[in-house]
Design goal:
The chain is of the alpha+beta class and 282 residues long. It is built from eight helices and 14 strands. It starts with 9 loop residues before the first helix and ends with a strand. It binds zinc ion (ZN).
């Protein structure tokens, strides 16, 4: 697939790929020529997912790579990040992600020791003024949680989802989360895993999140596949979020590698897209 199929603008092509159930809860639009997938959240809470389009990076990192830890040209990454920060007119808080379970406040993270690892951030209208959280992804599951008081974003790799990063993010919020968005990430179509990982997911989230080898399409048909989206949705429901308030555009990063970086599809030398969250009134 190509992001510029039939000469249609990339925003239109991406919008067509959103799962119909999520269409009314997300918008695809261009910000300064950069196509983004924006969540419709209540109140002043805002979150968007960047794609790989619209940046300065070239080659395998083409083009909106936001990861300063990649082997990409640091100047191109800095320009890409600055493009987002300038559009938001906010300071980006972008911690070192380690597939851990630590969740911090955005201001706390911004003021803490540089490089202190963190895989989730909370944003509060009074505490985190002028800040935007930026977490980076290339297959792992971005999760946005939103309540009446504050919001949180989390980086959910399979280890994190199994270990409870979604629960940690929900508990770190001051008010209870009432809505969630699952961002572009590796889908059940493409997430083949070893038997031990499959068994761990089945034990934690139920047998429904694991598909036996050979069922459905996708690579790795001789291996079981895990539905990280279903596991993540299950974790959100455990936090008290109603199932219909868990929005998922069902955009698999490996199936849509024209729009998104995918570690599984492209290997370790690739870029990272972002999940950006902020409180508009803060
Ligand atoms: Zn896929």
């Amino acid at each position: 697939m190509t992001a510029e199929r039939d000469g249609s603008p990339p925003t239109e092509v991406l919008a067509e790929r959103i799962d119909p159930a999520a269409e009314s809860r997300m918008d695809v639009r261009g910000i300064d020529g950069v196509p983004v997938l924006e969540c419709r959240l209540p109140g002043a809470f805002r979150a968007l997912f960047t794609t790989r389009l619209g940046g300065d990076s070239v080659g395998r990192f083409s083009s909106l790579n936001l990861d300063p830890r990649s082997e990409d040209d640091p100047a191109a990454v800095a320009r890409n990040r600055q493009r987002i920060a300038a559009w938001l007119d906010r300071r980006l808080v972008s911690p070192t992600q380690v597939h851990g379970l630590r969740v911090a406040g955005a201001a706390e993270c911004a003021g803490g020791p540089a490089g202190e690892p963190c895989d989730g951030l909370t944003l509060h209208p009074e505490i985190d003024k002028g800040l935007a959280a930026l977490l980076l992804f290339a297959d792992c599951v971005p999760v946005v949680l939103c309540g009446e008081v504050d919001m949180a974003v989390a980086h959910g790799g399979w280890r994190g989802i199994l270990g409870g990063i979604v629960q940690q993010a929900g508990r770190a919020m001051i008010g209870p989360p009432a809505a969630a968005v699952i961002g572009p990430s590796i889908g059940p179509c493409c997430f083949a895993v070893g038997v031990e990982v499959a068994e761990a997911f089945a034990a934690r989230f139920g047998a429904d999140v694991v598909m036996s080898p050979g069922r459905g399409s996708g690579e790795g048909n001789d291996l079981p596949r895990v539905d990280l989206w279903a596991a993540t949705a299950g974790a959100c429901v455990e936090l008290g979020i109603r199932p219909e308030q868990v929005v998922n555009p069902r955009l698999c990063t490996a199936c849509n590698s024209d729009f998104f970086y995918s570690y599984r599809k492209e290997g370790p030398v690739t870029g990272r897209q972002g999940c950006v969250a902020w409180v508009a009134s803060a």
